[in-house]
Amino acid sequence: MPHVKPRQIVIDTDPGIDDAIGILLALASPEFSIAGVTTVAGNIGIDTTTRNAGRLLAFAGRHDIPVVTGAAAPLSRPGPEPLNLHGKDGIGGVALPAPVRQPENQPAVEWLAELLLKEPAGAVDVFALGPLTNIAHLVLDKPDAAKRIGRIIAMGGVVYEPGNVGPRSEFNLWADPEAADVVLSSGLPLVLVPLDVTRRVRATRDFTATLSASGKPLASMVADLIESYFETSTHQESRPLHDPCVMLFALAPELFRLEDLRLSVSTGPAEEAGALTIGERGTPVQVATSVDGPAALDLLARTLTSF
């Protein structure tokens, strides 16, 4: 089989337990070359999300990958309260080393723009695991650079099912609906991976036991992170792995069904903020609408236990 050059990616993230799992999956995947990790406030404040990104890279021994601090607040409205689901430290209290490398001095949008302008057009993909604030700032402030993104794969939104922070809203889009509106209406190549899909990639305690039994450090850490989810819940037999679905889609798009939908984002009051509507006035977006959940979990386990 011919050698395939790894795809260059930037992970835009607000770690977050499931963000952390997605980052570790990307680190374990030879298909990706991670140019940097940009952070955004979301699950918890920007200082903590930035520190958590550095801690994850320190754990994996990847001091070569820069962490770049991004937006501390949404484009035009107050930021959400931190999610108790992820604990005070954002990653469920799981033990990680302190960051070895300090965050870059440059703001995330400037750093990302420089990277995109330096690399060939279309050569860098963005994996968006949190609110879309950084990418919206890039679109608004550095449009020539934004147009050079190969593809954005974003975990966010809900299409046909109930939301998780409102009747029709998912957290990432709800946290900064104006940013989501900017990104979706920009016309940039975008694949949206909504709750309709991510709720079907569910880890059980048997799954975490398999990861732990492998003895592989990244797999064991992911098992600990998933177990921390169980510890914050009661009477739950499984937990959805939302953000890792971005990496899983990039690795094996054949496991997902894509629909071309015309979507618009509500920027209204809190209850409707971030809600997606299908209609002729919307922007064409590729949306993952179903997934082979067991196969996706198997791919996650195989990747982590082979690293």
UniProtKB/TrEMBL annotation:
Coiled coil: none annotated. Keywords: Glycosidase, Hydrolase. One of its GO terms (molecular function) is purine nucleosidase activity. The keyword Hydrolase applies. GO terms for cellular component: cytosol. One of its GO terms (biological process) is purine nucleoside catabolic process. Pfam families: IU_nuc_hydro. Residues 9-296 form the Inosine/uridine-preferring nucleoside hydrolase domain. This is Inosine-uridine nucleoside N-ribohydrolase. It comes from Microvirga lotononidis.
